[in-house]
Amino acid sequence: MVTAARLVRLVLVAFGVRFLLGPWPAAVVLAAGCLWWGLRAWDRWESRSTRRALVGEVMTRSYRRQPDPGHVNFARALAAVAAEYLARCEQEANQP
User: Based on the number of CB atoms within 10 Å of its own CB, is 8 exposed (0-12), middle (13-18) or buried (19 or more)?
Assistant: First the structure.
């Protein structure tokens, strides 16, 4: 939460930096500061939403529920492709 005192300090710092450094360096410094603040805010927002999602997932998870068979089917198909590839490689290696 941005308080009035914090906002006044921010404005005073911006004018002070502009007075000391000039307009272009002050703009660069303030742009870097805004970028830093934005990335920090984004990180806090994401960590908060991720934490909420994980808590919701853990609370709704049932340990008696059967796992999704999709990954099992994928593993079986992958094993079949690997076996076929191995068979063809062995055929090529045994040819005269």
Answer: exposed
How large is the C-alpha radius of gyration of the chain? 30
In the chain, where are the structural domains located? 4-61+68-94
The number of residues in the chain equals: 96
Dump pLDDT digits (tens) for 40-91.
989 888 887 776 666 655 555 555 556 667 778 888 899 999 999 999 999 9
Q: 0.85 exceeded by the pTM? A: no
Could you give the 3-state DSSP secondary structure of residue 70?
A: helix
The residue behind tokens 């055929």 is: 91
What is the spatial distance between Cα 93 and Cα 96, in angstroms, rounded to a whole number?
Answer: 8
Token duo for residue 59: 């609370």
